[in-house]
Design brief:
The chain has 241 residues and is an alpha+beta fold. It contains five helices and ten strands. Helix content is 20%, strand content 32%. The protein is globular and about 55 Å long.
């Protein structure tokens, strides 16, 4: 009996086809169902294979439309395409640099409210119930339970600039936040962030977290915004005592 096909093997096979030119930059990749049928694997394994391509920067996911080859597929140094030409390296810097935007580091506003720097952005919004990331689940006290989750991909005329995700645990009563704690850090993108921002996982993102607390202490809301660091400048304004 042959051993089961693993997602790594399927990912490698699809990657080879992309580099061979079977799927051109920007072209749609087979759906999860198609990959499952083609390689005789389960949907879970097929999804892992496609997500692996996304995490490598080879593909990008478009919510509701499927998975597509990135504009600049990732290729090892020296690898060539079907005609012998060197493949384009991923996310090369354009001749004219993309203008850097300034955004407010302190939001203190509902997740769907425009804030300084957001006025000209348009959003692709999805709503679902899903587990929050471990660090956020600990703060909200939700464990592994699903919570109402709103995701917004914010874009300007040049493309995506931020992924904003809003988590609100189920509570019997809502109350205005009396304390808002913010934190900003820099790290490389997660697979989800890379897909939403149409970049690779090697890209640095500025992560701005905003936690809202009630008077009696519990956290009632959490908003995480991941910005493409090369296009965003965060500005913080406050009144001295």
């Amino acid at each position: 009996m042959a051993p089961p096909i693993k997602w790594e093997s399927v990912s490698s096979a699809l990657r080879a086809e992309i580099m061979a030119g079977t799927y051109a930059p920007g072209a749609p990749l087979p759906s999860i169902a198609d990959v499952s049928t083609r390689y005789d694997i389960g949907n879970k394994t097929a999804r892992k294979a496609l997500n692996d391509l996304i995490s490598q920067g080879i593909a990008v996911a478009h919510k509701g439309r499927g998975t597509y080859v990135a504009d600049h597929p990732l290729a090892p140094f020296g690898e060539t395409g079907p005609e012998g030409d060197a493949l384009t390296p991923p996310h090369t810097r354009p001749d004219t640099p993309r203008p850097r935007r300034t955004h407010a580091a302190r939001r203190r506003a509902p997740a769907d409210a425009p804030t300084a720097g957001d006025d000209d952005l348009h959003a692709l919004t999805t709503t679902e119930r899903a587990p929050a990331p471990t660090d956020i689940a600990i703060i909200l006290g939700t464990g592994g339970n699903d919570v109402p989750t709103v995701r917004r991909i914010l874009s300007d005329d040049h493309g995506p600039v931020a992924l904003r995700t809003h988590y609100t645990p189920d509570t019997e009563a809502r109350a205005d936040a009396t304390t808002v704690v913010t934190h900003t850090s820099a790290r490389t993108a997660t697979a989800e962030e890379a897909g939403a921002l149409q970049t690779s996982r090697a890209t640095v993102v500025l992560v701005h977290d905003e936690t809202s607390y009630r008077l009696d202490g519990p956290a009632i809301e959490y908003t995480r915004t991941a910005y493409r660091a090369e296009t965003i400048r965060l500005s913080d304004q406050y009144q001295p005592r």
